[in-house]
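Q: Structure tokens for this one, please.
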Amino acid sequence: MCEIDWAVVAEFSKQMLTPLIAIVATYIAWQQWNTNKQKLILDRYDRRLKVYEEVIQILSIITRDAKASYDDLIKFRRAVSEADFLFEPEIMKYIDEIYQRGVQLEYWNKQYRDYTQAIPDGYNHQKVCDSMHAELTWLTAQFEPAKQKFKKYLDVSK
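A: Here is the predicted structure, written as tokens:
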């Protein structure tokens, strides 16, 4: 029968304990890194979603009121200010176009005169109406294009 030298077993166990602890510590550190990476992705998603929701909100206001006040547009601009840092340039360009068209719509709404108002010199009612209509038509048709533009940044099905 073979006799076990417990002193050798104890010494071997001591020597293996340090590498085992190092392996476990490395695994824990890797798991923490992975968790932090996932949290960063989730935080970025939440911030991107907020920008998308602000775009939908300003489009909804415009659709509901057939105009956007300068106050609404300034609030919108401030709410989406971090889009430059969260998206590719195409999204900021799109947001700028929504903002500019909203400003133009408000400008044409301020220019509009109906039959009860005094008509200023050089007022072209047809031009004002056509311009209002063009901006409003473009803006109210942006719900689906907005969804498509933001989809690649917000798609969680992958």
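A few notes: The CA atoms of residues 98 and 139 lie 7 Å apart. Helices lie at 6-65, 70-79, 83-86, 89-111, 125-140, 143-154.
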